[in-house]
Design goal:
Number of domains: 2
Family: Belongs to the SEDS family. FtsW subfamily.
Distance between the termini: 62 Å
Pathway: Cell wall biogenesis; peptidoglycan biosynthesis
Order of helices and strands: HHHEEEHHHHHHHHHH
Strand content: under 5%
Membrane topology: Multi-pass membrane protein
Number of helices: 13
Structural class: mainly alpha
Pfam family, one: FTSW_RODA_SPOVE
Function: Peptidoglycan polymerase that is essential for cell division.
Shape: globular
Number of strands: 3
Helix content: 55-70%
Radius of gyration: 29 Å
């Protein structure tokens, strides 16, 4: 679904000059709040047994994170999204500086140095980088227009930006976030109008480089690396169920114990120190165990409805920048959700990423809600013209009811006074007007 024609720039739109904006997409807003509340409930359920003194530590922190995130979402929702196109350069430079500083001053956790401790708050610059790359690429692609179809001047510059940011993230290292960012950026480039031939060549080159990297890594002694172990255990997790395949095996046990109808909310067994991080990366198996197949299916349908509604908002935008920004935000959330759910169900190799809007997290939930606020700002832009059209249509209908109405009328020729079709005579105004009209036709 590539966009071949350049859309109107912000300065070309007559609707933006009025200063008034429409209402946000309330269905999307409702689905967002529904998923956030659902995630908070399961963060509480998954973490209640991890602390012997109180069941509230993670839930209390998550409540604070959600409050901050909703505040940021409401702020971004009330800012015209076109302003982010003007602010993107200083914001992008700030994120690049944070990514450069993270491997040096960042805190190490789970074999990665991806967090910067700021007193009582821990910042993850990678999450900010994802949103900034989306905004930067949306601005770049919207300015290029049809120029994206040229390989040297249109296709290569966005790839250079993606490669630079991906290299900074891999210094931490964070392979999961790098893969999500690259996949999201490629979706935006494709939707922005890139040639299929260029996309195919890029995919072929990426596959060759990945194979070469894996081969060299194994030759220099990377057999004991946990990333290689994740790929090998993906093929047969039960071959080493007590060591390398322990996480996947316990997640599969959780889904099996849930059965059709589930064990009930709060009744999960695998969260009792069997599943690692049941409130974070492995929260989906807890959902599957407590809600069962039916409940999990309903949850997935709601999540898909949320993604579908967000995609509709993006595609309804009348500007290229708004459309690409919306597509980037929704594809980022959808790809990350697929990688998380696919990993814990052993559909794809396991990668340590959170489930957006559901898993416990500080920077992740705040940045995700902030990005959804930008998407809601885009929905406010297209809702205004639709509202005005509806009001104008309603006004025309009222005027039409006050005038002469006929189901069929034949214009009278000189010397003829014949009309085909009945004249509505219920309204006194219509009756008087129709009598005058017949009299004047006879004259």
């Amino acid at each position: 679904m590539a966009v071949r024609n350049q859309r109107a720039l912000p300065s070309d739109r007559s609707t933006s000059a009025s200063g008034r904006r429409g209402t946000p997409d309330f269905l999307f807003l409702f689905l967002t709040f529904l998923l956030v509340c659902f995630g908070f409930a399961f963060v509480f359920s998954a973490s209640m047994a991890l602390n012997a003194n109180t069941p509230w530590p993670f839930a209390f922190k998550q409540a604070i994170n959600i409050t901050v995130g909703i505040f940021c979402m409401l702020v971004c929702m009330n800012i015209d999204y076109r302003k982010f196109q003007k602010w993107i350069k200083p914001l992008f430079i700030s994120v690049v500086l944070l990514l450069l500083a993270t491997p040096v001053i960042g805190a190490s956790l789970n074999n990665a140095r991806s967090w910067i401790k700021l007193g009582f708050f821990t910042l993850q610059p990678t999450e900010l980088a994802k949103l900034m790359v989306i905004l930067y690429l949306a601005g770049l692609l919207s300015r290029k227009g049809e120029g994206i179809r040229d390989f040297k001047t249109g296709f290569i510059p966005p790839l250079a930006v993606i490669g630079f940011i991906s290299a900074l993230i891999m210094l931490q290292p964070d392979f999961g976030s790098t893969a999500i960012l690259c996949a999201c950026a490629l979706v935006m480039i494709f939707v922005g109008g890139a040639r299929m031939r260029h996309m195919f060549l890029l995919g072929l080159a990426g596959a060759c480089l990945a194979s070469l990297f894996a081969a060299v890594y194994l030759l220099i002694g990377g057999e004991g690396n946990y990333r290689i172990d994740r790929f090998t255990t993906f093929l047969d997790p039960f071959s080493d169920a007590n060591d390398k395949g322990y996480q996947i095996v316990q997640a599969l046990y959780a889904f099996g114990h849930g059965g059709t109808f589930g064990a009930g909310f709060g009744q999960s067994i695998q969260k009792l120190h069997y599943l690692p991080l049941p409130y974070n990366d492995f929260i989906f198996p807890v959902i599957g165990e407590e809600l069962g197949f039916i409940g999990t299916s309903i949850f997935l349908l709601v999540y898909l409805a949320f993604l579908w509604r967000g995609l509709i908002i993006a595609l309804r935008s009348k500007e290229t920048f708004g459309m690409l920004t919306g597509v980037g935000i929704i594809s980022l959330i959808g790809i990350q959700a697929f990688i998380n759910m696919g990993g814990v169900t052993n559909t794809i190799p396991m990668t340590g990423v959170t489930l957006p809007l559901i898993s416990y997290g500080g920077t992740s939930i705040v940045v995700t809600l902030m990005s959804l606020g930008i998407l809601l700002s885009i929905s406010r832009d297209y809702n205004k013209p639709e509202k005005e059209k509806a009001a104008e249509k309603k006004k025309n209908a009222r005027l039409h009811r006050r005038t002469l109405t006929m189901t069929e009328m034949q214009t009278a020729l000189p010397g003829q006074r014949r009309f085909t079709g009945p004249i509505r005579q219920k309204d006194p105004f219509v009756k008087g007007s129709s009598s005058c009209f017949v009299l004047s036709a006879g004259l």
